[in-house]
Amino acid sequence: MDESVSSLVFFVNGTKVVEESAQPEWTLLFYLRNKLRLTGTKLGCGEGGCGACTVMVSRYERTSKTILHYAVNACLTPICAVHGLAVTTVEGIGQPGDLEGQRQQHKRRLHAVQERLAKAHGSQCGFCTPGFVMSMYTLLRSNKKELPTMAEVEEGFQGNLCRCTGYRPILEGCRTLTRDGCCGGQTNGGGCCMDQNDQTNGNHIDGDMNGNRDTIQRSVCTALTNASDFEESYSDSQEPIFPPFLQLSEELDIQYLVIKGDRVTWYRPTRLEQLLQLKSEFPHAKIVVGNTEVALEMKFKHCDYPVLISPAMIVETSAIERTDEALVFGGAVTLSTFKEVLEQEVHQGPKESTRFFSALGQMLHWFAGKQIRNVAAIAGNIMTGSPISDLNPLFMATGCVLTLQSQLKGIRSVKMDNHFFTGYRRNIVQSEEVLLKIAIPRTKPDEYVNGYKQSRRREDDIAIVNGAFRVLFHPQSSKIQEISMAFGGMAPTTVMAIGTMEKLVGRCWDDTSLVEDVCGFLLEDLPLPPSVPGGMSSYRQSLCLSFFFKFHLQVLRDLVARQIVTSSIPDNLLGAELDIEHGRFKSAQMFELVPKDQQNLDAVGRPMAHVAGEKHVTGEAIYCDDLPPLNGELHMALVLSNQAHAEIVSIDPSAALALEGVRGFFSAKDIAPGRNVFGPIIHDEEVFASKKVTCCGQVIACVVADNLALAQRASRLVKVTYSPLDGPAIFTIQDAIKNNSFYEGHTREIVKGDVDAGLRTAQHVLEGTFEMGGQEHFYLETQSVLVVPKGEDGEIDITSSTQNPSEVQQVVAEVLGLPANRVVCRVKRMGGGFGGKETRSAVLAAPAAVASFRLQRPVRCMLDRDEDMMSTGIRHPFLARYKVGFDSTGKLTALDVNLFSNGGNTMDLSRGIMERAVFHIDNAYRIDNLRCHGIVCRTNLPSNTAFRGFGGPQGMAVVENVMDDVATYLKLDPSAVRSLNLYREGDHTHYNQRLEYCTLNRCWNECQALAGIEQRRKEIENFNKLHRFKKRGMALIPTKFGIAFTALFLNQAGALVHVYKDGSVLLTHGGTEMGQGLHTKMLQVASRALNIPVELIFISETSTDKVPNTSPTAASAGSDLNGMAVLNACQILVDRLAPIRKAHPDGTWQEWVLQAYFQRISLSTTGFYKTPGIGYDFATNIGSPFRYFSFGAACSVVEVDCLTGNHRVLRTDIVMDLGESLNPAIDIGQIEGGFVQGLGLFTLEEPLFSPANGQVITRGPSNYKIPSADDIPEEFNVSLLRGCPNPHAVYSSKAIGEPPLFLASSVFFAIKDAISSARTESGLTGHFTINSPATAERIRMACEDDLIKKVSKPEPGTFVPWATSV
Questions:
Q1: Is 620 annotated as a binding residue?
Q2: Which of 3, 93, 596, 873 is in Cβ range 3.0-4.6 Å of 944 for a Cys bridge?
Q3: Do the annotations mark residue 421 as ligand-binding?
């Protein structure tokens, strides 16, 4: 063996790092966070799917003498792979700050990218922000000659997810760093984003944008940010230089690196013969380039790979050759380089010879995210052998030739054809062979190639089905000489439709029966049983037919254009073969400017940036797991149940405890009798399952160890023996109804009027059902906690990522048998919450507290993404059964609804969620006779919990579905039916609350005007006439959301204000910051109340020892409750200072404060607020459950590809009544973010469970898809209603967190409108049902046409599905 070295050498932010004792299992992310304490880079998923861990890696390419910069996922990158490379993290960009900068709470002068995101309001919770910063930064650094285009920015963000912002401000902020830097005059109002104005960001106009000119004189702004707001410009010459050592010396490049760890050895040979020798010696060793697959197998499948080999420095594996017949790529060429070279060839070469290159390039655009493509290798994709590989079908359809080499057998060439894959992830390559290179053939003049892919989400998603087609015609004819078809997602391997291929040779492409015949042949070649892994058997078969239809049409068009055939292609097939065109993104944000006479120091009403925005973009914002390690700290891992309905026979931790470094094991026996239970409504949940488990993912025990990896390994060694319980495991609402499995005593019913009489006398009556699926919270920061025992009197300190610190305090105190005054829970900030951290934080905090208290050592735990998704519950799925009576105008006369929700295995907040669903069953409509009965189902799934909207969206979706049914039945425009039934001022709801200050009709009318709904409808009708398989639809949806906790006692808040002698103010309140900007708004409230600049006020954290007995930050009430409490406290202080101010009217705040101190006037006080005028009795249906309502309306236009089920939102216009906004930037951000989260709920996100044991299948971003930047509306306009002050909240504002989410149902109903158009063209009219979410599968199957009719559709109940969507 050649001489080797074992020291890792690399650079991080310009500093040389030498690591002598690296473990090959360590990732770059682990090293940055735990060894270098650079915590700006975040762990969001651990599988390269969210981008929170994005960093820039740079290397010197000696052949071309260039420095290459590329973004990577630090969570996947092995630490050993960065030997000889330079790493830049979010902490390493920008310029060193000065003392003044540190006073302003950030340590560095912001880089241009950081400034854009901070000032453009591009961060909310901030957890994803460093990843976006580094993706954009890397894009700028890698574009040497000119700024990137917006298309390149959007591609660069493919691998980055944000759950808060809705992406709009991120894209708009980055636009000013692109060649497209200006809006092009497309800002609403006809202005330009570069225009200056003297009051605030963006453009402003006078007049009645959406108000009353006679009563409203304030100007309207049409954009939150413009280019003139940014001070920092970008120049590559000002960036940190690449480390000269790496550029001047090849010493590290030529080293044969061998890193021997405790469990794994890493080899990095530098010559091909070394690589072949290693494969001969270790034939089952994994060759690692990007580690994008091996890392997942090691982390999630717990595979052991004792030998890993990197071919990164071997010239032959990275070589690229050009010949007359092909492009030949080394196996280690990355997919980004592969794509770049292919695109260059397409640009430079003749079209007829580069058709295959073009098809590959297009497919690569949809392959994973940019960070993955930057490191993943061609050979890795082939050798992984995924049955849904995006590239293998294309390689097989074109018969690409692979060159294999081994030390003993030398070189051989093999063709990728139907014999290449021998089984699931198996192929003909021998274990000692290396895939050296692949030849990508050029196409002939009469040869056509294309590939197709359908996935749940367009960008960065694995395929449901992909297909590749190649046809070679006899010269200058349409007669098929050769044809190949390969498919992924139709078998355990990529397969070829051999029978179809053989039958088509000699046929003519313009044969009128060709498509019909091929459909039959393909269904014979590609059978799928209904229980097939992956599910969706009918849909998957239909995609194969659709793909061929598209390919046939594409080729036929070219043959016609070349005048080889004279076929007449029907006009209505226009664009059927193409993807939905992606237009240019644009947006507008319309809001009132503050009055011209408002003092400059008065921050209320101004679009002030998030107070922590600059900390977010620099990586300096501290989250729970960013806290420095403490002396003696241990890490906890949970032992979770893998059974849903079983008795625990025994628990054996001996194997776990035998591992060196494991310090403890805790289960139910370690908690005092009677204290192993908790729950927010009823105590029906155990900290540790004691005698039985009632769902997969239930906590049985925990293990604590010296480090997280060891604790997790030990937890997997704990042996739990189960015995099945009698009776069936229940997973779905239908299962629960069948087995009468409900939470007895927790039903809710509201009845208004005489429903039965109303139905009897109605002109028309319809009955129907509607189902709405659940939704995973997918906060970017998973559940995390750090528990620290204080050493005396039983005191314990908890830092938790929770929306409800008082609940965590109470649960821990009760479990440990301590009074609450010994337990402090504090929250600095959360990386998102959305309701998922209202109660479920206690599930993690309680076990950690038990372990910490017993061992008297700090205990830390941050759940991995899969653990979090397996155990913490989702939004409640709902089933509605309804009967509606109405007249011929569409006026509803009676509605009877039975609601069922899937509560999971414990009550949690399910009763309150059902209450809100029942309250919101009317949405925005007056229905004089209404009965709604709500039942919570007990199932064997992890307890479902609060989620933004808290049951409201589920109830509102039901009545909107009713509105659509009524309109369809009467053949009326759904908007007309909705408008007819809207509430008016003074109406009473079904729970008898009178509507005051009701702006529903204003929102509705303004939204129609903003959207130009009449013109839009004409355009849609014209488009649909011209397109058979592309359809557009539109929907206008209102919302009315009640503001208050329905549990009366929660409608209270406290605040604590300290004023120090220097005039600085420390503010604490009971709300928690999770990205919604609550702290920022509270600073604005205090600023106005005290009449001092915001800069004098500071909020450190939320803590139970500062403000006790806090309500959860939920129900959209955070600003209302805490704002009034802050106002109360500040007013007390103002009153105390009043005599001093009167005596010294010309003094300053600081002087008044100092005088008060010397006069012994208290400069500290508490504030308190309880919401007045609310309270409701279900028994009598009397009272006012809500203090007021937030109103709004949204109009969305979509385009649907009827052949695949894809859709794109072309435009959304939103009008919201937010009273007088405390902060238009934050409120508009909440509208946009809530809408896009709702977009996921109604169209994309589908939690799946195993029907066998209820195990969660969707456990991470690889198979659970939240919206990406590509999914948001191409035109996204938000307008805040003017002239509607709210007398019931702080400074006339309104709550905003939850109300906008439901407006995304406008996309759902627009999709339904488009489907209806497609069905009408197929001769299908009248009612049809599509449940939420409107996934691509459901859309395609509802667009019934001749292709769909060919596919068999098994009846539910006749087979066991692979997965259950609850």
A1: no
A2: 873
A3: no
Q: What is the pLDDT of residues 1253-1302, one digit of tens each?
A: 999 999 999 999 999 999 999 999 999 999 999 999 999 999 999 999 99
**CATH T-level fold of 1052-1170:** Aldehyde Oxidoreductase; domain 4 (3.30.365)
User: Please, which residues bridge with residue 1188 across strands?
Assistant: 1043
Residue 950 annotated in ligand binding: yes
- C-alpha distances in Å from residue 479, one per residue of 374, 414, 553, 559, 577: 41, 29, 15, 11, 21
Determine the topology of domain 8-244 in CATH: Ubiquitin-like (UB roll) (3.10.20)
* Alpha carbon distance 153, 1234 (integer Å): 23
Q: Is 55 annotated as a binding residue?
A: no
List pLDDT tens digits, range 527-580: 999 999 999 999 999 999 999 999 999 999 999 999 999 989 999 999 999 999
Q: How confident is the model over 624-674, as pLDDT tens digits? A: 999 999 999 999 999 999 999 999 999 999 999 999 999 999 999 999 999
CB 1355 within 8 A of CB 1072: no
Residue 8's nearest CA partner among 88, 87, 79 is: 79
Q: Is 291 annotated as a binding residue?
A: yes
- Catalytic residue check, 516: no
- Any binding-site annotation on 63? no
**8 Å CB contact between 736 and 902:** yes
Locate the DSSP E strands across 630-691: 634-640, 646-652, 662-666, 677-678, 685-686
To the question of whether residue 1072 is assigned a binding role by annotation, the answer is no
Instruction: Catalytic residue, from 154, 1275, 1298, 1337: name it.
Output: 1298
At residue 1, the pLDDT reads 54
Q: How far apart are CA 641 and CA 653, in angstroms?
A: 14
Question: Dmax over Cα atoms in the chain, in whole Å?
Answer: 103
Amino acid at position 449, single letter: V
pTM value?
A: 0.96
Task: Judge whether 952 and 1298 are in contact, CB under 8 Å.
Answer: yes
Phi-psi region of 1129 (alpha: psi -120 to 50; beta: other; left: phi over 0): alpha
| Cα→Cα distances 839→363, 743, 810, Å | 43, 19, 11
Burial class (CB in 10 A: 0-12, 13-18, 19+), 410: exposed
pLDDT, one tens digit per residue, over 553-563 is 999 999 999 99
1006, 1010, 1015, 1021: CA torsion to nearest 10: -90
Q: What is the dihedral of CA 421, 426, 429, 430, to 10 degrees?
A: -150
For 1086-1136, the pLDDT digits (tens) are 999 999 999 999 999 999 999 999 999 999 999 999 999 999 999 999 999
User: How does pLDDT run across 178-218, given as a tens digit for each residue?
Assistant: 998 854 444 444 444 434 343 333 454 444 433 333 334 57
Q: Say if CB 1208 and CB 1278 are below 8 A apart.
A: no
Domain parsing of the chain, residue ranges? 8-244, 314-561, 635-727+783-826+835-862, 748-775+875-1045+1180-1334, 1052-1170
Other Cβ atoms closer than 10 A to 1354: 13
DSSP 429-494: --TT-EEEEEEEEPPPTTEEEEEEEEESSSSS--EEEEEEEEEEESTTSSBEEEEEEEEESSSSS-
* Phi/psi of residue 946, nearest 5 degrees: -60, 145
| 45 is known to lie in a ligand binding site | yes
| Element at 904 (helix H, strand E) | strand 892-904
Class of domain 314-561: alpha beta
96-128 as b/e, with b when 16 or more CB fall inside 10 Å? ebeeebeeeebbbbbbbbbbbbbbbbbbbbbbb
Is the distance from CB of 1267 to CB of 170 less than 8 angstroms?
no
- Tell me which fold the domain 748-775+875-1045+1180-1334 belongs to: Aldehyde Oxidoreductase; domain 4 (3.30.365)
Q: Is 866 annotated as belonging to a binding site?
A: no
In this structure, the dihedral spanned by the alpha carbons of residues 1012, 1013, 1018 and 1022, taken in order and rounded to 10 degrees, is 90
Tell me, yes or no, if the two domains 748-775+875-1045+1180-1334 and 1052-1170 fold the same way: yes
